[in-house]
Amino acid sequence: MEGNVQKCSTLKSTKSVEELYSFVTDFRKTIDGSQSECLAVFDVDQTLIRAVPPVASSISHKVHEDLFKRLLSELPIEQEYLLAHLPLSVPSNNAVREEKTVDVFNKLHEDGHPVIALTASLTGPFESYERFEVFRFNLLKDLGFNFSEIYQEPEVPFSGFVDFRGLPPSYYKGMINTNGLFGGRSKGKILMACLDKLNTVPCGVIFVDDVEANVHGVAEAMEVVRVPCLSILYNAALWRHEELAEESDFESYWTAAIAEIKQNYLRENNFMPSSRAL
User: Fold this and answer.
1) Could you count the other beta carbons within 10 Å of the beta carbon of residue 261?
2) Where residue 87 sits, what CATH number does that domain have?
3) 211-245, pLDDT tens digit by residue?
4) Is residue 80 part of a domain?
5) Which domain holds residue 47?
6) Which residue, among 49, 222, 69, 212, has the nearest Cα to 121 in the 3D structure?
7) Which of 104, 112, 130 is nearest to 232 (CA)?
8) Lower Cβ count inside 10 Å, N or C end of the chain?
9) Interior angle at CA 56, CA 238 and CA 188, nearest 5
């Protein structure tokens, strides 16, 4: 996947967090000398952490793909998106992160780069959480990921996007939560909205994500605003530590989860505390 989108953007791919850091070091030198400070932007799930149980792991979904498609057949896309967030609502002791990922994250801080998150995570009420973005912020903080405050205010909404569940994408204490990626939303467009609200434009953007479409989308968006961008496809976390769920466990969990989604979504487009066991 490596190459140049146009003049300003560079695309890289790696499964090594050490190589990722070497990409960043080289990129800084191409901008304005080795001391240039860039805005580092990380996806969260399957990039910084793996926060799902075996029934929601990538390998389980791959092995049980036909079964899952059959279970999803009755849900519209909005409910499918809520369904995908159910495993992410587990406590931090279910999340996995590697020490060397935290080390590189902290090195970027030490090098003077502001480091923020850009995640497709929901905002507002979800299951038993009054504000899902606050829960996710605290989970990541507990795991050693301390994001940079890039605005004077701790919270900033982004207008110009179609609301989902009555809420827009928003920034919360160093984390940009897109609140979905549909209805014209993309990580590239939302990052552009983020930069538009900054008093100063960064000399460069470093973007890291496990989804190739997001990597290309952010690189293309930074071309529009003429900000040099290193966009890295990093999927090492995708397969590490993953466990394959038994088919019966997989079907039982997702059948119950889909029934809960249908019941609560139709009633109030929200969730009540769940009794599902992870």
Assistant:
1) 21
2) 3.40.50.1000
3) 899 999 999 999 999 999 999 999 765 555 567 88
4) yes
5) 3-267
6) 49
7) 104
8) N
9) 55
Residue from 57, 42, 51, 50 nearest 209 by CA: 42
pTM here? 0.85
Sequence-distant (6+) residues with CB within 8 A of 216 are: 5, 11, 231
Residue 260 and residue 252: Cα distance in Å, rounded?
Answer: 13
Is residue 40, in this structure, part of any structural domain at all? yes
Q: Closest Cα to residue 277, out of 257, 248, 261? A: 257
SS3 content of the chain, % helix, strand, coil (to 5): 45, 15, 40
Taking only the tens place, the pLDDT of each residue in 104-156 is 999 999 999 999 999 999 999 887 889 999 999 999 999 999 999 999 889 99
**103 occurs within a structural domain:** yes
Distance CA 29, CA 23 (A): 10
87: its two tokens: 């495993």
In a domain, 64, yes or no: yes
Determine how many CB atoms are found less than 10 A away from the CB of residue 263: 11
**Burial of residue 9, with CB atoms counted within 10 A of its CB: 0-12 exposed, 13-18 middle, 19 or more buried:** buried
Domain count, the chain: 1
Q: Residue with structure tokens 């279910």?
A: 94
What SS3 state is found at 131?
coil
